[in-house]
Description:
Blueprint: E1 12-14, E2 21-27, H1 32-48, E3 51-57, H2 67-79, H3 83-92, H4 100-109, H5 114-123, H6 127-139, E4 147-150, E5 153-155, H7 161-174
Parallel strand pairs: 2-3
Antiparallel strand pairs: 1-3, 2-4, 4-5
Amino acid sequence: xxxxxxxxxxxxxxxxxxxxxxxxxxxxxxxxxxxxxxxxxxxxxxxxxxxxxxxxxxxxxxxxxxxxxxxxxxxxxxxxxxxxxxxxxxxxxxxxxxxxxxxxxxxxxxxxxxxxxxxxxxxxxxxxxxxxxxxxxxxxxxxxxxxxxxxxxxxxxxxxxxxxxxxxxxxxxxx
Length: 175
C-alpha cells in the first residue's frame, strides 16, 4: 500500500506540495459517489487548510459504459494543459453526458480544441494511460470508486462530506 502514496511525474496533481493533506483518489468520472466526493472535497479544502489531490483513473466500465471514454477525454484535455478543468466539468455535468459526442461538446464548452479531442477519442490515443492507471489501481488494492489514500493511508469510509471531514480531521491530528 505504501507504493500507492508515491506520486509520479505523470500523476495529475492539484494543490500545493506542502499542503497539510495529500489525497490520492482512484476515481471514475461516471460514478455518482466520486461526484459526491468531488463536491465534498471542494467544500472541505479551506476548512482543513488545503488539500493536495492526486487523481488516478479507475473507470468501472462494466457499471458505467462511458467511464473509460470520459477518462480518455480528461487525458485529451491534459494534453492541452487542461486536465483539471475537464476533471471538474466531467463531475459537474455527469448526468448530462450520454455519449462520446457529449464528451467532445464538453471540450468545446471549455474552449479546448474539440476536433483534436474527437480525433484522439476516435483513435483511442489516451487509452494506454487510462489502462496504466487501471493496472496501478489493481496493484494498490483499489477496486471500487472512489478509493482514497489519505496521507498514504487507505481510507475505507463513505464519500459524503461528513465522513470525509472526519477522516481528514483525524489525518491532520496524526501529523
